[in-house]
Task: structure prediction
Amino acid sequence: MASSIATRSTAGTDLPPPLKESGQREVFCGLTSIVWLHRRMPDAFFLVVGSRTCAHLIQSAAGVMIFAEPRFGTAILGERDLAGLADANEELDRLVDQLLQRRPEIRTLFLVGSCPSEVIKLDLAKAAERLNRQHTGRVMVLNYSGSGIETTFTQGEDGALQALIPLMPSSDQQQLLIAGTLADAVEDRLVGLFHKLGIDRVASLPPRRSSELPSVGPGTKLLLAQPFLSGTARALLDRGAELIRAPYPFGVEGSRAWMAAAAAAFDVAPARIAEVLDPLVERGQRAMAPHREALAGKKLFLLPDSQLEIPLARFLSRECGMELVEVGTPYLDRQLMAEELALLPPGTQLSEGQHVDNQLLRVRQQRPDLVVCGLGLANPLEAEGMATKWSIELVFSPIHGIDQASDLAELFARPLRRRAALSFA
Amino acid sequence: MELTLWTYEGPPHVGAMRIAASMEGVHYVLHAPQGDTYADLLFTMIERRDKRPPVTYTTFQARDLGGDTAELVKRSIADAVERFKPEALLVGESCTAELIQDQPGALAAGMGFGELPIVNLELPAYSKKENWGAAETFYQLVRSLLKPQLPTPGAPKPDPARWRTEGRRPRVNLLGPSLLGFRCRDDVREISQLLASYGIDVAVVAPLGARPADLQRIPTADANVCLYPEVAGTLCSWLERQFGMVCARTVPIGIGATVRFLRELHGLLDLELPAELQPGTNEVCEAECRSRLPWYSRSVDSTYLTGKRVFVFGDATHAIAAARIASHELGFEVVGLGSYSREMAREVRAAASELGLEALISDDYLAVEAAIAQAAPELVLGTQMERHSAKRLGIPCAVISTPLHVQDVPARYAPQMGWEGANVIFDSWVHPLMMGLEEHLIGMFRHDFEFVDGHRSHLGDGAAAGDKLTTESPAVDLTSATALAWSAEGEAELAKIPFFVRGKVRKNTEAFAREQGLAVIDSEALYEAKAHFSR
Result:
């Protein structure tokens, strides 16, 4: 990426160096992002070009829902494709024709790269260009990679949004652009609050319809709602947008700072900001109180998954009084995480990357009160007597904003409450 | 390339994982990219297991591809053996690792683990699938563990009735049950109880719950029971060839099949057939009364089930069993039978031709959906995938086979095999259908504000399944190219047909109209067609 994001502060100087580990990583690949992106943009279709493993992954994750109309599928490579006996491009064209015939209402088709397609170096970007020419006016064909070798879980969304950026119209008008998937109700609420603060034009990426992309340009001020959008942020800056530096909108404190930073970027007077936000802050803190009671003093261990771990750890320690044992993240973008790192309690042990067996040894040694981890580990750890919070839920839940702070805290308090509530014999 | 919206089976390494995770003391080192650990969730979430599957993944990333991935494999193998101290080690690749060809099995063999049995799995991910992977892994594992016991060629075959001279009860192995199989947990219990009630012991159950040492005891049994041919078929044939072990091949799903299975096994073991298993008067075999299905199915409440049109799809074993139960034991009319198990296509074709059908052998979800739409059934017995098609087409559906999801690994006892399995099957297949009284009343009065067309009030959701089969859609075009117009009055008459047979009536009427060269279909044409097809 050409642009860089200047680091503002001496963030994280109170933190010990992060533990960097390599070994088995128990994480999802970026293809998993399809599981929520297909709902955010119902007029888009996600066609993975990969193997049966890729198809199996997505349906294992999403197949418990029953679809009258599938929103995703896989072009499964066969031996003929690998042996070069079939022209991969012709094959892809044929499949896309077949698909569009079944689903004529699709407006955007994402060709999603996988490990097999990348290892054999199938040029999906070129294929997308070609298919675009063939289907001009009917459907936009885009490409991004969700492969495990390149991307971890939420990084798939980063890839998908980057693919949309070249299609965004250029415009110099003053606007606030929120990047990162938000639940509909949360989006409406946040946009309403920005209007109240006097910011009239607020746009979202991704939009609810893939064909209604917001514009971008020198008047655009970019506010990241999700911490995993490194590539998207840089690509938007390349289009002239200006990044608003803020912690992420989790919890009362983070959300207030996030909204206030945006308001300040639009020269809203501090008095007005306080007038709009402070009542929310007061109410939010009131709603948090019972959860704080359940969580305060409890030891928390977060395993790497989504890059949400650092903002969540900040929220759970500062606003819920939890004690951080280890905060794992699959990937640490120090520049985009600077504001968050500055807010972490001194001495917080970060870890980047993973050696899952070693990390589980540390979990067992420390016996935290709550472990945030993926579903491959959650039940086994519960069976060892540890309370867990499965992390994937955090990307499927409305957790952004001041009004959602208590709901977010509740997600972590619930497993503890449940353990206390259950008794047998 | 092949367009897949839903896949009936996972890749073959998932089949290998099923064998490893079903067993104790076996570890599997899988050369696979970051992200392939998703498969752990199949076991921790769908099977709700309380421990991690015994699988170590190399989880290589793009940056590793520039370096020495073979070194990474060796490190992972050494680490796994040191940490988990397995009694047998499986080594293999996932689809992406297959492309970079590090030969992990050969690497493991050269690492000097002494006595540790190492099985090098060669599972071609781009041509084979999950069940094949499971069958191959199970076979290769047992083969390497039994190598020292192989009888010399030409040695006499063991006598299946040697239990008598040895003065003990006969004993058999139950081969094939595994995690992520359909209801294997309870099938094993049901069949073990069933065999015990006839004085037959179970020697080894495998792979589910077995250790490598148990597999080494396989030849001590008098016979094998191949409960799941998709997983154990290859192994049972090999044991028959190499060890001369006889094998019961009838899969005891359904009343008739359970009786046939017991007769077959008694024959193989040279056990005297108890009176209750012999055909009695009126063709009723005493033993069938141990299940409630025969009486429930004979009782008058079930009369309305007669001739209900049902489409059956699943793995070969469950599809064949379901078709037989549906046609012979519930009185349905099977209007479609198919399977995604290409390895057992011949058996499915044979079962279909007995029903006067042509079997659909396909793993293409869209082809299955089109076949369902074409057959216009009133009930679909299929897999988790058929629930999608059935929802789209508005047809009641019950799951009879993998692929499954979490709701088909229930807490309650829910076998498919044996007497209790038949009870479970009766309940779960009849449940999605509209209840008899409601069916009558909706046929008589169509203007109700609550009990509307397609409504199944016993399901509680009140969702009207609607008339989707008769709605044209680009993917599922029920009519041929010939344009046929329905008059408004004809349409109105069609709407009076109860919704679950309306699709069939529309198709029949249109076929009749085409045959007769009618340009417009009115109510008379509909009744003409009705009379025509009732012949």
Q: What stands out?
A: Chain A has a mean pLDDT of 93.
